[in-house]
Amino acid sequence: MYSADLVDSNIEKPWSICGGQPATGNQAKAVFRGKRRVACTNFADLRSPCGRASYGGISGYGYPGGIAGAYGGFGIIWPDGRGSVYVTRDGGHHWHAVPIAVSDIDSGTWATTVGNTGFVLLWREGHSRLVETTDAGRTWRLIRRWR
Known about the structure:
Number of strands: 12
Largest sheet: 4 strands, antiparallel
Distance between the termini: 40 Å
Structural class: mainly beta
Order of helices and strands: EEEEEEEEEEEE
Shape: globular
Protein backbone atom coordinates (compact mmCIF):
# COMPACT_ATOMS: atom_id res chain seq x y z
CA MET A 1 0.00 0.00 0.00
CA TYR A 2 1.20 3.50 -0.81
CA SER A 3 0.11 6.78 0.69
CA ALA A 4 0.55 10.40 -0.29
CA ASP A 5 2.27 11.79 2.77
CA LEU A 6 3.48 14.80 0.81
CA VAL A 7 0.52 16.94 -0.23
CA ASP A 8 0.13 20.62 -1.13
CA SER A 9 -3.60 21.14 -0.63
CA ASN A 10 -3.87 24.94 -0.72
CA ILE A 11 -5.51 24.84 -4.15
CA GLU A 12 -8.58 23.37 -5.84
CA LYS A 13 -6.66 20.44 -7.40
CA PRO A 14 -4.04 19.57 -4.78
CA TRP A 15 -0.62 18.32 -5.79
CA SER A 16 0.57 15.13 -4.11
CA ILE A 17 3.47 12.73 -4.48
CA CYS A 18 3.48 9.07 -3.51
CA GLY A 19 6.56 6.94 -3.10
CA GLY A 20 7.11 3.23 -3.50
CA GLN A 21 9.46 1.14 -1.39
CA PRO A 22 12.86 2.92 -1.16
CA ALA A 23 15.91 0.83 -2.06
CA THR A 24 19.59 1.73 -2.41
CA GLY A 25 19.08 5.36 -3.37
CA ASN A 26 16.07 4.74 -5.62
CA GLN A 27 12.35 5.08 -5.10
CA ALA A 28 9.38 4.84 -7.45
CA LYS A 29 7.32 8.04 -7.46
CA ALA A 30 3.83 9.04 -8.64
CA VAL A 31 2.59 12.63 -8.91
CA PHE A 32 -1.13 13.42 -8.71
CA ARG A 33 -3.18 16.54 -9.43
CA GLY A 34 -6.38 15.95 -7.56
CA LYS A 35 -7.26 12.30 -8.19
CA ARG A 36 -5.46 12.12 -11.56
CA ARG A 37 -1.97 10.62 -11.82
CA VAL A 38 0.02 12.93 -14.11
CA ALA A 39 3.59 11.55 -13.83
CA CYS A 40 5.13 8.33 -12.63
CA THR A 41 8.46 6.58 -12.46
CA ASN A 42 9.33 2.99 -11.73
CA PHE A 43 12.68 1.26 -11.30
CA ALA A 44 11.72 -2.42 -11.38
CA ASP A 45 9.52 -2.38 -8.27
CA LEU A 46 6.43 -4.15 -9.60
CA ARG A 47 4.53 -2.98 -6.52
CA SER A 48 5.21 0.66 -7.38
CA PRO A 49 2.31 3.11 -7.79
CA CYS A 50 3.03 2.98 -11.56
CA GLY A 51 3.08 -0.74 -12.21
CA ARG A 52 5.61 -1.15 -15.02
CA ALA A 53 5.08 2.22 -16.72
CA SER A 54 7.21 5.36 -16.37
CA TYR A 55 6.27 8.77 -17.77
CA GLY A 56 6.70 12.44 -16.97
CA GLY A 57 10.49 12.73 -16.65
CA ILE A 58 11.02 12.06 -12.93
CA SER A 59 14.00 9.81 -12.25
CA GLY A 60 13.74 6.72 -10.07
CA TYR A 61 16.94 7.90 -8.39
CA GLY A 62 16.46 9.70 -5.08
CA TYR A 63 13.78 10.16 -2.45
CA PRO A 64 11.09 12.85 -2.67
CA GLY A 65 11.14 15.37 0.18
CA GLY A 66 7.95 17.15 -0.86
CA ILE A 67 5.91 18.83 -3.55
CA ALA A 68 4.52 22.33 -4.00
CA GLY A 69 2.38 23.63 -6.83
CA ALA A 70 0.66 26.80 -7.90
CA TYR A 71 -2.93 27.02 -9.11
CA GLY A 72 -1.65 27.14 -12.70
CA GLY A 73 0.87 24.67 -14.05
CA PHE A 74 4.06 25.48 -12.13
CA GLY A 75 5.20 22.94 -9.54
CA ILE A 76 8.34 21.90 -7.63
CA ILE A 77 9.51 18.58 -6.19
CA TRP A 78 12.43 18.76 -3.79
CA PRO A 79 14.68 15.88 -2.68
CA ASP A 80 15.13 14.40 0.77
CA GLY A 81 18.92 14.03 0.73
CA ARG A 82 19.26 12.22 -2.55
CA GLY A 83 17.98 13.21 -5.97
CA SER A 84 17.25 16.38 -7.92
CA VAL A 85 14.96 19.37 -7.64
CA TYR A 86 12.36 19.06 -10.40
CA VAL A 87 10.03 21.68 -11.91
CA THR A 88 7.00 21.42 -14.14
CA ARG A 89 5.25 24.16 -16.09
CA ASP A 90 2.37 22.09 -17.48
CA GLY A 91 0.49 20.89 -14.41
CA GLY A 92 2.79 17.97 -13.66
CA HIS A 93 2.83 16.09 -16.97
CA HIS A 94 6.51 16.86 -17.76
CA TRP A 95 9.18 17.38 -15.08
CA HIS A 96 12.70 18.77 -15.57
CA ALA A 97 15.64 18.56 -13.16
CA VAL A 98 17.09 21.98 -12.33
CA PRO A 99 20.73 22.47 -11.24
CA ILE A 100 20.16 24.17 -7.88
CA ALA A 101 20.97 21.21 -5.60
CA VAL A 102 23.77 18.65 -5.53
CA SER A 103 22.48 15.11 -5.04
CA ASP A 104 23.77 13.30 -1.94
CA ILE A 105 24.99 16.66 -0.53
CA ASP A 106 21.94 18.97 -0.50
CA SER A 107 18.56 18.22 1.05
CA GLY A 108 15.44 20.17 0.31
CA THR A 109 13.51 21.19 3.39
CA TRP A 110 10.68 23.33 1.98
CA ALA A 111 9.36 24.92 -1.21
CA THR A 112 6.40 27.03 -2.26
CA THR A 113 5.01 28.46 -5.48
CA VAL A 114 2.77 31.41 -6.35
CA GLY A 115 2.09 31.96 -10.02
CA ASN A 116 5.48 31.66 -11.74
CA THR A 117 7.42 32.50 -8.58
CA GLY A 118 8.91 29.74 -6.49
CA PHE A 119 11.18 29.40 -3.48
CA VAL A 120 13.21 26.37 -2.38
CA LEU A 121 15.00 26.07 0.96
CA LEU A 122 18.04 23.77 0.75
CA TRP A 123 20.22 22.42 3.55
CA ARG A 124 23.87 21.27 3.39
CA GLU A 125 26.04 20.27 6.37
CA GLY A 126 24.56 22.78 8.82
CA HIS A 127 24.14 25.56 6.26
CA SER A 128 20.88 26.61 4.61
CA ARG A 129 20.16 28.67 1.53
CA LEU A 130 16.98 30.06 0.01
CA VAL A 131 16.77 30.23 -3.79
CA GLU A 132 14.10 31.91 -5.90
CA THR A 133 12.75 31.70 -9.42
CA THR A 134 10.38 34.24 -10.97
CA ASP A 135 10.06 32.51 -14.36
CA ALA A 136 8.66 29.08 -13.39
CA GLY A 137 12.04 27.48 -12.75
CA ARG A 138 13.93 28.55 -15.87
CA THR A 139 16.42 30.67 -13.88
CA TRP A 140 17.24 30.77 -10.15
CA ARG A 141 18.99 33.21 -7.82
CA LEU A 142 20.26 32.98 -4.29
CA ILE A 143 18.16 35.06 -1.87
CA ARG A 144 19.76 34.29 1.49
CA ARG A 145 22.36 31.99 3.03
CA TRP A 146 22.48 30.96 6.72
CA ARG A 147 25.37 29.33 8.60
